[in-house]
Each structure stands twice: as C-alpha cells, then as structure tokens.
Design goal:
heterodimer; A: alpha+beta; D-Amino Acid Oxidase, Chain A, domain 2; Glutaredoxin; 3 domains; 8-stranded mixed sheet; 26 strands; B: mainly alpha; 3 helices; about 0% strand
C-alpha cells in the first residue's frame, strides 16, 4: 500500500519568479506548508490576500506527529471551510481515564456541557489534517483565490529591510529571489528562518525520553484517552494509549533519561513491551516507531519587523496537553485578520504588535501548563516523586487529590486578558465571555453561533436591536439581532447571565472585543478607534 | 493577610505530638516519607485557603 506521506501532494513546478528580471514582490510569503502555514494561507486567501507558501518538501509530514485536535481548532477549520472533513475522518473523544498501576484513579469528561457543535477533541493523524488543508486550498484555487504552494522551494537566505524581506529560494531548477512585504515563518521547532535571523529560542530541556509507537490492531479498547502512572508493563514510568483513524493506536511509553535510543527503537525491544501492554492474544502490526525528547521554550518576541513567527517556530511545548499544533492554529487565527487589515490599509502596522502580545501570553500559559504536567509525570527529585505518589495514593478516595493528578492539562483557547485590543466590559455579564475571550459556542436559531460569526467583525444584539450593517472606520460590521424569545438557555447563560440584554462586538477570529448593555454607535466607534486605528495604544 | 502562626492554638498539644509520633510507629523511612506527604496534602485541603497555605509554606522555609 502506498502511504499518504509518500505521494507528492504539491509537486515541484517551475514558477514565474524564477525567470523574472527583478525579484517579484509578494504581499505575504509563508515559510512552511505544515498545518499552521496551510491554515494561515487559507485564511488570507479567503479574504483575497495573495499568498505564496514555500516548502522545502512536497509531501505531508511523515510519521506520528500531532494527533489531538481540539474543539477550538475544529471551530477554526469550520471557519476555513474544512471542519467537516476533519471531523468525518477523526475519532471523536471526550473522556480520559488515569490509572496508577492497574487501578483507575481518575476519570474526566472534557466537555461535560451540552450545546456545542464540535466535540472536545478529535484524534487524527497530522498527515490527514495537512491533506484536508491542501485539498481546501485546491478548491479555493479553482474558485480563483490567490493561494500558491511551491513545493521543493527551500528558503536559503534572508535579507531584512524596513518594509520587506529579500528571500533567496533554492529549487531543482536553481535559485531565485523574491521580495516579501510580510514573511511569516511557520517552519517548525527547528525553524531555519529563526536560525538565519539568529534569533533566540530559550527555555527548559526535559531530561526524559518517550517512545512513540503507532500500531494497527482491531482491538476492543474504548475511544478514550488512557494514561498510566507506573503500569505493570512499564514500571516506574508512564504510558499513554490513544485511538486514531484507520485502526491505528498511538502508544507513548516513557523510557527515562539514560537509555540507548537506537537499541530501544529496535522491533525486538519494542514488540515485547507492547505485547505486555496490549495482551499476549492481541494481534497488531507496528506502523511507526520513534523516540523523542522535548523542551518547553519560546522566542522572546514573535514579531520582528516584517518577519513574524507562528506555531512551533515561535514556541515549543511538551506533548502532554496537546498544546502544540492547537496553539499554532490559534496563532494563525489571530494573525490572519490583523495582517489583512494592515495590507488593505484599514489598520496601522502597529496592530500586529497585538499579535505578539496575545500569542506570547498564550505561549506562556501553554508552557506553564505543559511544564507542570511534565513535572508531575517525570518527578525531578526524590521529594517530588514522594508527593506525586502521595497524590496518586489519595486520589482513589479523595476528590481533591484527583484534581492534583496531572497527566496533561488539555488545550483550551487563550483568553486575551489585558490585551490592548480589549474594549469596554460590563461586569454583570458572564465572566467566561468577557472581552478577550474566545466565543463560547451555543445553539443559534437553526444552527450554531460560531458558524454565523467569524472572518469579519460582527455585532450581536441579544434582546436588543442592532443594525444589519454598520460602517465604522472604513470597516463593515455585520449585525445580528435576537429577540428575547429566540434566546435559548445556553446562549442566555453564556452571554447574558442575569442581564436582560447585551451587545457584543466580535472580532474576525471569534474573540469578544467589547460588550455593552445597549446599542450605542458612538461607543462602538470608540472601541474600534482604539482597537484598529490608534497607534499609541500598542506602544 | 497575616498569619497568626506564632499564636498557640493546638488543643492538648502533648497528646497531638504523641499521636503524630505514634502514627509513624513501625514505618520505615520510605513509608514515613510517604505518610508525611499524604498528611501534608490532606491538611492542605483542610486549610484550603490559598493565602494561608502560601504563608505557611513561607513560614516553614524560615526554620
């Protein structure tokens, strides 16, 4: 069988820039056709912003990489037009179980609340995610959207100027130069862009090794995330079992620090471990084995003049918590609309500083959570091991101890508290939808709230009239009114609380910008002016 | 908030101290360490208040 990651998905073709007399200028050049770069390309292309994606390869990612895609990522895919494909292929899960030895100590439901279109998580091999993103780009290209993916176009050199970057690109037909108004580096944790610009990437290395094995089996395990501390089949270490599509199961086994990686990877050493874990009578084939170590670190700044970093190139976390790719999509989501406003002259360039503020805040939160999980899973000292084991011992009978068990705090979207973009708030309205928050989904008329709002600015009047369209600072706002009888219980509890009416201003990335208790055009104009137009508020 | 950590509040202090030592009877060092860790966690949950816990941690560091 030919594997998906063996087929060129965006094969090399000579581009016109190769034979141009002078370097061709492009508004946006994205380095890296991984999930984050592709999502950003779709978002910009949908808005009619011409975008070129450069990738040194021409295929999807090889092997077992990101597998857990969060509800927020699915909502972003919905807005980009490929959420259904992901969910149709993916394995839906909401429940996680934690074992200590053979004993179940803890069970959690990530989405205990009804009234959301998408589940808490799906599991999907990263190569499927990339495939559906590329297919979406192909469909948009057919509609004439200005997106171009250039396979086997490797960025070899960068020269930065105040208003553009000169990029030297190597191809099978030789090298060429192009100019990028904005260069977006989505080229992964080892980011060549970051190295070429000699930028920092500091943080903490965790001294541990994990074996990833993808096995194909027809086994009767439930569709849940199972995590073991100190299981009989991997004494003194941890283990994780996760189901993926196509009967593939992802197994993570903690190995410790002082090991011989090459030796541990050999099938004759891997297979007995897996047999012990899965049971002697379970038939399985080994699809993929690799060993990884990890680090938690980030760039000090994500915005460097006209070069901007997104995804793993800007920040790296441990895999516990699925905070890598999922935070990368949130980066793309945050960046796309700001870049579009700046490129179309609707906003000052300084708006992009808010991308740095908001996503650096998110990276800190992801690193904090991921480091704490790692410290629980891999205790760093004798005393931390003693406390970890005490928590596990108490967890069977004590609810408070179950709250302390940390096998990964799973990715949730960042609330941009303190962001310079946040407008006025009304303290009586529910805390979870305060300015800076990601929208919380809810049934809305015959569909879903999140399907109705996004990619543009929206104004939502709950129990109060707002105009259908409004023009503020050269931007169009789309208004939605819901009269009291139309407001369901979920929408009421998430957006009104005890209030009778509210007006929400929603950003194109589906975050709340500001909210009021009545429609006041002057207040909305003020919020916009301080969010988009004013220069000094970002300094 | 300030902690009244130096104020004597224990009921029947000698009895408590004897109970604490007796609870470790027959335990080896590793078992005693594990016992202490469980006890600290249980007491922390009983105290619950974050500011009080922070003040206690800081007080214990002082010796």
């Amino acid at each position: 069988m030919t594997k998906l990651f063996e087929v060129p998905l965006y094969p090399y073709r000579p581009c016109e820039d190769l034979v141009a007399d002078t370097p061709v200028r492009h508004p946006v050049v994205i380095v890296g056709a991984g999930p984050v770069g592709l999502a950003l390309a779709i978002d910009l292309g949908l808005s009619g912003i011409p975008v070129v994606v450069l990738d040194e390869n021409d295929k999807v990612s090889v092997g077992s990489r990101a597998i857990c895609f969060s509800k927020r990522s699915l909502e972003i895919f919905d807005r980009l037009g490929c959420g259904d494909e992901m969910v149709a292929k993916g394995v839906v899960w909401n429940v996680g179980k934690v074992f200590s030895g053979n004993r179940k100590v803890y069970e959690f439901n990530l989405l205990p609340e009804a009234g959301h279109k998408r589940p808490a998580f799906i599991n999907l091999q990263q190569y499927y995610c990339e495939l559906y993103l590329v297919e979406r780009i192909r469909a948009l290209q057919a509609e004439g959207k200005p997106i171009e993916i250039r396979g086997r176009n490797r960025v070899a050199n960068l020269v930065r100027s105040d208003d553009h970057t000169l990029v030297t690109v190597e191809t099978p037909d030789g090298a060429y130069n192009l100019q990028a108004d904005w260069l977006i580096a989505c080229d992964g944790a080892g980011s060549p862009t970051r190295h070429m610009l000699d930028l920092d990437f500091v943080g903490r290395v965790f001294e541990d090794n994990f074996l990833i094995a993808d096995v194909i089996m027809k086994a009767d395990f439930p569709t849940e995330r199972w995590f073991w501390f100190d299981p009989p089949f991997n004494r003194d270490q941890s283990a994780l079992l996760h189901k993926q599509p196509d009967g593939v199961w992802r197994i993570d086994l903690q190995l410790g620090w002082d090991i011989d990686k090459e030796e541990e990877k050999k099938p004759e050493n891997v297979l007995p471990r897996l047999k012990e874990m899965l049971g002697a009578d379970v038939d399985f084939d080994l699809d993929w084995v690799s060993i990884y170590t990890f680090q938690c670190r980030r760039m000090e700044k994500f915005v460097h003049g006209r070069v901007i970093f997104a995804g793993d190139s800007a920040h790296q976390v441990s895999p516990f918590g699925a905070r890598g790719a999922n935070s990368g999509f949130q980066d793309a989501d945050n960046l796309a609309w700001k870049l579009k406003l700046v490129l179309t002259g609707k906003a000052r360039e300084s708006l992009l500083q808010s991308y740095g503020y908001e996503r650096e805040l998110a990276a800190d939160d992801n690193i904090l959570n991921s480091s704490r999980s790692t410290d629980f899973i891999t205790p760093k000292s004798e005393i931390s091991r003693i406390f970890r084991d005490a928590v596990l011992d108490l967890s069977e009978h004590h609810a408070f101890a179950r709250q302390l068990v940390n096998s990964g705090r799973l990715s949730v979207p960042q609330t941009y508290d303190g962001s310079p973009l946040n407008g006025p708030d009304v303290p009586e309205l529910p805390d979870r939808t305060r300015p800076g928050s990601p929208l919380v989904d809810a049934p809305f008329r015959n569909g879903w709230l999140l399907d109705r709002l996004g990619s543009e600015f929206h104004l939502v009047g709950l129990g109060c009239e707002v105009p259908e369209t409004l023009e503020v600072c050269g931007l169009h706002l789309r208004g939605h009114c819901l009269a009291a009888p139309e407001i369901g219980p979920e929408l009421r509890s998430r957006y009104l609380g005890s209030a009778q009416q509210a007006v929400y201003l929603i950003r194109p990335d589906q975050h709340v910008a500001a909210r009021w208790t009545a429609f006041d055009p002057a207040a909305i104009e003020n919020a916009f002016t301080s969010m988009i137009v004013r220069e000094e508020h970002l300094q | 908030m300030t902690l009244a950590t130096r104020e004597a509040k224990l009921e029947r202090p000698d009895d408590f101290y004897a109970d604490l030592l007796a609870a470790h009877d027959g335990l080896c060092k590793a078992e005693s360490d594990a016992f202490n860790a469980r006890l600290i966690l249980l007491m922390a949950n009983q105290i619950a208040d974050r500011e009080t816990l922070k003040a206690l941690l800081s007080e214990a560091r002082k010796r």
